[in-house]
User: Fold this.
Amino acid sequence: MRMNSPAPQVTGRGGLAEDLHISIARLSRRLRRQGGGDLSATQFAALAAVDCNEAMTPRELADHEKVRPPSMTRVVAFLVDQDLLRRAPHPTDRRQVVLTATDKGRTLLTERRALRQAWLSQRLSELTPDARAVLGRAVPILERLSRA
Amino acid sequence: MRMNSPAPQVTGRGGLAEDLHISIARLSRRLRRQGGGDLSATQFAALAAVDCNEAMTPRELADHEKVRPPSMTRVVAFLVDQDLLRRAPHPTDRRQVVLTATDKGRTLLTERRALRQAWLSQRLSELTPDARAVLGRAVPILERLSRA
DNA sequence: TATTGTTATACTCTATAACTATA
DNA sequence: TATAGTTATAGAGTATAACAATA
Assistant:
């Protein structure tokens, strides 16, 4: 245990992969704890993805958000139940379902963006412009890692 | 739905906070799916933190990894049960417990580091040196955000 | 046969509340 | 009173397996 010593650090012993892995996991837990709004992280991300892409199928959403189809079924079911997403038949493939955001969904997305990100936005504003720039450059790299 | 169009992007509509939040959550899910070894993300991080700091109490571990004390109790109980961590009485405060890594814990940590990070290490090696440098600079910033 | 989506079910992780022991 | 740690319990999120419908 540390007695009056500085905050413990995990990083520095592992390589970049371990440091990044642990940092991502910990920040993810921290963000989850913060909560924000009435949508979970995956629910919010799914709604945002559908809105951003105009329309997506459940399978595309599952692949995009890195969850399995049955998990996304639950997320979508919730969003449809809340009248935030709408189901429509696929124009050419009757197995598929086309999801679009409802007006209510788009409105909620707009309203909750600030609220949901309040904690993180505040923390980011306390960083130096240089640090924010680093994170801005890191985001697309993180996206690419998720996609791999 | 996208028909033969490029991969959908979430980023670009929200600000840095939203983009970062969603990217972190998604990569966290992706990393969890990858698995790697027989320790969960929190179990591995806890063991690494104790090893790195020589000794920590459960409360310090909980604060450090951003989980509540009862959650860390379970993590620690598992690690002690697996003979990876050892409990010892605190020298001056009999309420507290001092955790140290066992030889088995340190050995496992060394052995599993490469295995556990194999997927991410491979992905990182496919990035440009510049991209890796960005992530290297981002890690301590992410740590700082977690700590806030 | 392969794929989309769903249902049924179970597991993992984390949380809150309440308790004990110690400070 | 306050804090460290635990126990009991519950919730959220995600997974696998099996199924129906369609390609």
Observations:
- Residues 2-12 of chain A have pLDDT under 50 and may be disordered.
- The two ends of chain A are 39 Å apart (CA to CA).
